[in-house]
């Protein structure tokens, strides 16, 4: 992989639609590293970064273009399990050489070269290793992006995906001298007023099923419209459903046009990725998502509960 990257002068980077901290952090860190090597790099995205990630270096380049320049020699797709979710136009996609760099176990291996490591905590962890393999010295700017990606996907090192390797790579990132406490504060202890209101609306719908084994919350389209918040900015709301000690599954359903966007978090028993895969989604064992077609909210809940019960008794 490093040989392919070193041989190319003009590269493009892309990640999945509705990018999160890992997607944005790993993409921008790699862009900085490749430019340190003298490469011409285009960041592709159909949308800007979420507001809480605007502090990252190069964040202003996100959403400027989703069209791959015709002279691109190499496309690196980061943190995206299937090509349909890549946030870019498809012009030239089939012609360019593609490196697929990801840590999702459900990855479709759509690249010409696939580097998929489900044991990695995050794509940012993998990019940290790649930057070292490329011979680039980590800068504070790269470290900010990488640290953001890792803490986002590990829940600030709380999730089981955190490994000894994760902490070793994080130590290298901290050695740059970055202000990690500032990043922690922005990501986990700063929430603007309208997002606090959105959290309140979700918590008002909190209910439990299966003797508390499943927590469910929902947000209507009107909740996002009234507060002028895009539905991708629902943040960590779904995690609150796992706080009851008896809860193993937490689900947040967000109303869309003719379907529901579903976020799932689990503790130990249910495989979140396997549950979401039933409905065409995917993700990680403890964190996953999908789009679920249903005429009513109750119908959507019923489908999910039926599959969870089936998985429990299998």
TrEMBL record:
Residues 12-150 form the DDH domain. Transmembrane segments: none annotated. It comes from the Bacteria. GO terms for molecular function: nucleic acid binding. Residues 231-308 form the DHHA1 domain. This is Bifunctional oligoribonuclease/PAP phosphatase NrnA.
């Amino acid at each position: 992989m490093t040989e392919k990257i070193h041989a190319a002068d003009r590269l493009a980077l892309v990640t999945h639609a509705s990018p999160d901290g890992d997607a944005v952090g790993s993409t921008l860190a790699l862009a900085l590293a490749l430019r340190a090597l003298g490469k011409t790099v285009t960041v592709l995205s159909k949308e800007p970064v979420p507001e809480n990630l605007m502090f990252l270096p190069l964040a202003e380049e996100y959403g400027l273009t989703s069209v791959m320049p015709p002279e691109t020699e190499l496309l690196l797709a980061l943190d995206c399990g299937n090509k349909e979710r890549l946030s870019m136009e498809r012009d030239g996609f089939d012609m360019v050489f593609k490196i697929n760099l990801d840590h999702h176990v459900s990855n479709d291996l759509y690249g010409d070269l696939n580097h998929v490591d489900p044991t990695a905590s995050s794509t940012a962890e993998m990019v940290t290793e790649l930057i070292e393999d490329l011979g680039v010295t980590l800068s504070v700017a790269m470290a900010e992006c990488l640290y953001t990606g890792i803490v986002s996907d590990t829940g600030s090192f709380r999730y089981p995906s955190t490994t000894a390797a994760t902490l070793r790579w994080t130590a290298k990132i901290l050695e740059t001298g970055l202000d990690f406490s500032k990043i922690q504060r922005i990501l986990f202890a700063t929430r603007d007023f309208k997002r606090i209101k959105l959290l309140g609306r979700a918590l008002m719908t909190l209910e439990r099923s299966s003797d508390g084994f499943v927590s469910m919350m929902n947000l209507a389209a009107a909740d996002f419209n009234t507060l002028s918040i895009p539905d991708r900015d629902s943040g960590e709301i779904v995690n609150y459903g796992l706080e009851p000690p008896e809860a193993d599954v937490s689900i947040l359903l967000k109303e869309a046009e003719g379907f529901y966007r579903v976020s799932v978090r689990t503790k130990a028993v249910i495989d979140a990725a396997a549950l979401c895969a039933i409905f065409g989604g995917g993700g990680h064992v403890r964190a996953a998502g999908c789009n679920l077609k249903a005429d009513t909210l109750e119908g959507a809940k019923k489908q999910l509960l039926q599959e969870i019960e089936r998985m429990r008794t299998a």
